[in-house]
Design brief:
By secondary structure, the chain is an alpha+beta fold. The protein has two domains: 153 residues, Chloramphenicol acetyltransferase-like domain (Chloramphenicol Acetyltransferase), CATH 3.30.559.10; 225 residues, Nonribosomal peptide synthetase, condensation domain (Chloramphenicol Acetyltransferase), CATH 3.30.559. Helix content is 33%, strand content 24%. The chain is built from twelve helices and 14 strands. The chain has a six-stranded mixed beta sheet with strand order 4-5-6-1-12-11. Strands 7-14-13-10-8-9 form a six-stranded mixed beta sheet. Strand 13 and strand 14 form a beta hairpin. Helix 2 packs across helix 5, helix 8 packs across helix 9 and helix 8 crosses helix 12.
Amino acid sequence: MNAKIPPVASASRGVAMNVLERAECLLDAGSSGNMNFTVIASYCGRLELRVLQEALAALQAEHLLLRSTLLWEGDHPHFGPAAAPVPVALLPWPGDDDPEGAARAWKPAARASLAERFGGGGDPLWRISWLQGPQAGELLLTFHHAIADGLSAMALVQQLFALLAASDASAQEERQDHWDAFSPDLSRSFAGPRPPAAAVQELSDRQDIGLSTSYGLEQLNASASRALLAWTRQRGLRLNATLHAAFLQALVAAEVVPAQTVATTVVNLRPLATPAMPWELMRLLRVCVETPVSVDPDEPVERLATELHGVLQQQLRQGDPLQALDSIAAALHDDPTPQQFWRRSWRQGGLITNLGRVPVGARHGDLTLQRLFFVANVEPIALPDRPLAVLGAMSFNDQLSLTCLHIEQQLDDPGAAAVLADMKRRLLLLV
């Protein structure tokens, strides 16, 4: 029998919290780390603060969770209304005077925003950091993971730049308010067969020692990205498997994780729902599935990619993502405190979260999006003695962006850069 997955009752004007959102709030609050994530959008063109603020207000008017805050009743989180606008922090942009500095400016800005916990209490659960130049800049959109996942965040970027292109939010076609304010009944939307939920495990002696996340970025140009996709398709694989295989091999070659490790894939539930749920739905709808794997860094990438592809497809067919959903519900069944839930939630090995080809255009009136990628904190799911590294992947404007999210106490920035460089080398050898 599938676990019952009820929404958590919220304040009368708030959105009912689904089981994934409740779990994210508890995990976020259960340790000194947090589960924020940031989307970085580099653009060229002139952008005014007034226009940005009007566009953000229009998005808040359309999406109820974007004008929601986090409230607690004991150990029970719920969404409530937030009257405040989206905070916008203005930061200097090195621009043409320092092209190399401009290319790296996103990282300290992202780290600062990601490190700041969303306290709720009336404030929205997202914010903007704007690296502002006269004719170019970067917008960093940071979210509490309880109100969005990667797919909905990318859909929001498309909506934001469409509004910015209009230069006047009132000129946009009138949108339906609260269209995604409903709380999907996950037990009905995902009612397919799946294995029984895994038993709840808890590390009763888990200690918060103050782990921290850092981020590395690597990109493949459009030509190499297209060639890699063609190579993958010719072998009947999905790009996710090829990227995951190269990442795992690079981690093992660098002795970051052992050869006998765990391969974890983030699966978005939207396409598995009945009916399927759109990207634009501003809700958290993702789970993780994992499998033990033996990684030989000297074998061809194709062998491991083929194995990972076959395993994931079998997991999807037999309902493992829905089993993961049931397991989260089971871990919440006894109303754990944030610290108790944190002791029940951890990962190890090499994890991939791949958004695929995101539905975001490059041209928006006088603004051109030049680069788009994401980073996230992972320290709440990391253990000090079980190495974890996460690959964030997505394709925008035919170009693959690869980010390594790593625990600084396990892998430093130069080491993460070397892992990404080795991964890129392995991918380019395929094409």
